Amino acid sequence: MDRIALSLMMRGPLALLLLGLGVWSSGSAIGGVLGLILAWGTVLIGYDLTNAVRLLEAQGSHRSIRRLDLGRLRPNWNAAKLLPLIKLALPLGLVMMLSSLSANLPNYFMISRLGERELGIFNAIAYLMVAGNIIVGALGDSASPRLAKNYAAGDRGAYSLLLFRLVGIGFVLGAVAVAIAALGGGTLLSLLYSPDYAERKTLFIALMIASGMQYMASFLGYGLTAARYFRIQVPLLLTSVVSLAIACYWLIPSQGLMGAAFSLMLAAGVQFCMSLGAIVHAISTQRARAEAS
User: Fold this and answer.
1) pLDDT-based confidence at 62, cuts 50/70/90?
2) For every residue of the chain, which 3-state class applies, written as one string?
């Protein structure tokens, strides 16, 4: 985990630097993309691959590593192993696709109904949700191995307690964000952007409410993944996306940007409720297995 963290720490600033230089030198987004490729490729070749080899060579041995053999990383096309892995991971790929669609779906309605200016204002304010998403992702990734271990061992109490704490953290993050938006949202928006944004304080509060609901739903998603409930997440996310699309279709034309915020609340609420139901089912299934054995 330390090596993964260091890789991400190097990749972020380097990507920002080369992205900026690429756009500045070429005057186009293509130059920025080439900068990103160069940054990520440098970290991949210069740090990630060498560490992967060291981990392989140190496997099962505590002796010091004297040689670096990149040939150890050549692909192993074993169909008997790869096909079950693809079957297992495919639902998670669909979940990631639906998550990406959900994040961008309101934009498609806003650009066609409200125009680029309103879309820009909405995305600028909504970007403040990213800070909480970083915390949620970090906590979820670090807690996932323990959640999976507890669930696999049949320790329902430890699994439920840790998941409950994570959801509680999501609630607190959302509550703090709403409090900041309510008490000093206008001032904060003026400092970050311009005084014109201070008039959108109500939108800021609504988006922070939606973000808090999404934080809690995301933590439940980590719990489902730890319990190996992969397939159920596809119809779960699909239902959330469909509800978001319907809400955007009805609310954005009449309510404007607030309609988009309300749509995000609805979708997050649907995802949270369905995820909670799936978690309850996972725990009940584990209990039934324990009683049967």
Assistant:
1) very low
2) CHHHHHHHHHHHHHHHHHHHHHHHHHCCHHHHHHHHHHHHHHHHHHHHHHHHHHHHHCCCCCCCCCCCCHHHHCCCCCHHHHHHHHHHHHHHHHHHHHHHHHHHHHHHHHHHHCCHHHHHHHHHHHHHHHHHHHHHHHHHHHHHHHHHHHHHCCCHHHHHHHHHHHHHHHHHHHHHHHHHHHHHHHHHHHHHCCHHHHHHHHHHHHHHHHHHHHHHHHHHHHHHHHCCCCCCHHHHHHHHHHHHHHHHHHHHHHHCHHHHHHHHHHHHHHHHHHHHHHHHHHHHHHHHHHHHC
Mean pLDDT of 251-257: 94
Single-letter amino acid, residue 75: P
Residue with tokens 């505590």: 62
d(CA 184, CA 255): 24
Q: How many CB atoms lie within 10 A of CB 122?
A: 22
* Contact assessment for residue 175 and residue 183, using Cβ atoms and an 8 Å cutoff: no
CA distance 293 to 290: 5
Find the range with the poorest average confidence among 45-49, 64-68, 78-82, 228-232.
64-68
Sign of the dihedral defined by the CA atoms of residues 30, 34, 35, 37, in that order:
positive
CA dist 235 and 156 (Å) reads 25
pLDDT, tens digit (0-9, with 9 covering 90-100), for 115-141: 999 999 999 999 888 888 888 988 998
Q: In this structure, are residues 182 and 163 in contact, taking their beta carbons and an 8 Å threshold?
A: no
Rounded to whole angstroms, the Cα distance separating 194 from 189 reads: 7
CB atoms near residue 215 (< 10 Å):
27
Start-to-end CA span in the chain (Å): 35
Confidence at residue 66, expressed as pLDDT on a 0 to 100 scale: 47
Chain-centroid distance of CA 92 in Å reads 12
pLDDT value at 207 more than 50 = yes
